[in-house]
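Quick start: what a row looks like.
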Amino acid sequence: MKKVIIVFIIAMFLCVVTYNITKNSKKNILALGDGLCLANSIYNVEGHSFNHYIKDYYYEKKLLNNFNDEFCKSNLTLKELNTIILENKQINKQSIQYLLDNADLLTIAIGFDELKIKKEELKKWKRKRNKLLKLVY
């Protein structure tokens, strides 16, 4: 029982030390994603996304070192994001791998545009189905 208590005390001590070391350190934030990441409206106008609210929070607390949302692109699919990461693409002389390695906070918002694409495909399929039904009946 003494060993369990000693291990617990050591673990708690390490947690407290780690927290105190990192609580005031400046954060690097990396945002990846599609139109949702950019807060695109239905009129394709960028707004203030959840990433920007996170950035503003850390900036106001003076805890923001770097914020990068240059890998957020409208109509970006999961497959394209995977290719960007595997090929280690660069924007403004910074590779995605470097940014991923140094990110303290990573946000990924992807799939929104893929749902939109699927919805358009569904509409096309329904139109074709309706044409076929008209031919049959």
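That is the whole record. The helical segments are 2-22, 35-38, 50-60, 78-86, 96-102, 112-136. Strands lie at 27-33, 64-72, 90-91, 94-95, 105-109.
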